């Protein structure tokens, strides 16, 4: 980062701080980093931001929070957005649907030389971001990171951790990595639902078909040759290497694309981190048996029908949370999530490496807001450590793993998340 950027008034700006997730990001900052990080709240409505700031100051019992600067701009006013982003090293964007409200923020982040991170799961929009900004951001050393919340940090950093362990400790790559979603307690927000509905209702049919059939949808933009990896589909199945039945996970279509994009990016750095020969990734929901896995599949079909058919979307909007609404504080603070991680090595006699990641808080909002924040703080505060790791990408439209790697893993662990490798077993039962 240039001396000019480093001397900007703020290290972090929370864009959309009056929204549901943005408010949580601001709360994490106010509670844990006030006085340690130069930060500001930004958005369209100054009065709403002032109210949030006042509530946060009382909530964390710190009068200094009441003096946190407020910056205002409408997301549709590109020059105004640029004036805000020119004042910070990193912007954390929480305003979705990103395909509707995010273009000017990314455009201006690249134009102003400001690192960027968001919580989108809108992969077609991410694809357009790569096509539009990757080369320019790469040339300027700007890091634009999408999908830095529950979508897709557990999948992306969890897989990176398993690959790193196999490469550094076992001296081999991985042929197949698994992320098995375990028990959890989570809430739903209107913003997430609106983003999903927006993808289905606005993207061209051909684009949706490519998204749902091509596991290299993003990775091929970075030059990764297509291998044999394919989307997991909706049918229940038994996974021998993971020793469990499993059903489909609705966010696999997002997370798998990010994992393969990380592989593509990391194999092209100064010190390449090759995930493995014909590396494949599977993400499903672990089930107790074939009946439970079949029920997960049936539920996924119903959800697909609700999101995919306009009349059912209209009915769903009447009963589901509206944008700006989300889970209760009880669900946020007492929720939890777990993923079991499995890696099958690409040795002549494969071994199985097991690990896990998780958190004792709601994944979609409390955990997501903290994951986004720690990603942004890695960009703002850990520049020297990132620069010292030659395996990492230096600029462009990137993934969290490709941009921040082990540095972010350590930040997440310090923030209370579990990311750990449990052990190595003998010959794999198979990688089906």
Automatic annotation (TrEMBL):
Source organism superkingdom: Eukaryota
Q: Name one GO cellular component term.
A: lipid droplet
Q: Which GO terms describe its biological process?
A: glycolipid biosynthetic process
Q: Which residues form a coiled coil?
A: none
* Record-annotated Saccharopine dehydrogenase NADP binding domain positions: 12-144
Entry's InterPro entries? NAD(P)-bd_dom_sf, Saccharopine_DH-like_oxidrdct, Sacchrp_dh_NADP-bd
- Return the Gene3D superfamilies for the record: NAD(P)-binding Rossmann-like Domain
Q: What is stated as this protein's family in its record?
A: Belongs to the saccharopine dehydrogenase family.
Its name, as the record gives it, is: Saccharopine dehydrogenase NADP binding domain-containing protein
């Amino acid at each position: 980062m240039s001396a000019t950027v480093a001397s900007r008034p703020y290290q972090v700006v929370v864009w959309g701080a009056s929204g549901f997730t943005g408010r949580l990001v601001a709360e994490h900052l106010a509670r844990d980093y006030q006085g340690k990080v130069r930060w500001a709240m930004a958005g369209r409505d100054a009065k709403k931001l002032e109210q949030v700031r006042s509530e946060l100051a009382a909530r964390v019992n710190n009068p200094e929070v009441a003096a946190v600067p407020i910056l205002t701009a409408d997301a549709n006013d590109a020059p105004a957005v640029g004036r805000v982003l020119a004042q910070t090293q990193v912007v954390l964007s929480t305003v979705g649907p990103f395909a509707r409200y995010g273009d000017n923020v990314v455009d201006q982040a690249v134009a102003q030389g400001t690192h960027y991170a968001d919580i989108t799961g809108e992969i077609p929009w991410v694809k357009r971001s790569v096509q539009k900004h990757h080369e320019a951001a790469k040339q300027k050393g700007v890091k634009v990171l999408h999908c830095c919340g529950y979508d897709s940090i557990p999948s992306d950093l969890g897989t990176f951790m398993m690959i790193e362990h196999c490469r550094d400790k076992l001296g081999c790559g991985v042929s197949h990595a698994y992320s098995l979603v375990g028990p959890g307690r989570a809430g739903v927000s209107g913003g997430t639902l609106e983003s999903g509905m927006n993808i289905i209702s606005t993207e061209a049919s051909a684009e949706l078909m490519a998204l749902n059939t091509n596991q290299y949808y993003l990775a091929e933009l970075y030059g990764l040759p297509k291998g044999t990896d394919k989307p997991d589909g909706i049918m229940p199945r038994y996974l021998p290497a993971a020793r469990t039945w499993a059903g489909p996970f609705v966010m696999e279509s997002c997370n798998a694309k990010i994992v393969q994009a990380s592989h593509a990016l990391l194999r092209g750095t100064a010190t390449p981190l090759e995930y493995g020969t014909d590396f494949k990734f599977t993400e499903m929901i672990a089930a107790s048996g074939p009946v439970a896995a079949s029920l997960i599949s049936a539920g996924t079909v119903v959800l697909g029908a609700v999101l995919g058919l306009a009349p059912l979307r209209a009915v769903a909007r009447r009963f589901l949370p509206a944008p700006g609404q989300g889970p209760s504080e009880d669900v946020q603070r007492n929720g939890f999530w777990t993923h079991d991680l499995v890696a099958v090595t690409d040795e002549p006699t494969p071994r199985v490496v097991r690990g896990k990641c998780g958190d004792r808080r709601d994944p979609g909002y409390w955990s997501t807001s903290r994951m986004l924040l720690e990603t942004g703080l890695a960009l703002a505060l850990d520049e020297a450590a990132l620069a010292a790791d030659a395996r990492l990408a230096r600029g462009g439209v990137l993934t969290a793993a490709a941009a921040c790697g082990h540095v972010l893993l350590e930040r997440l662990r310090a923030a209370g998340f579990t990311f750990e490798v449990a052990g190595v077993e003998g010959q794999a039962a198979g990688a089906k």
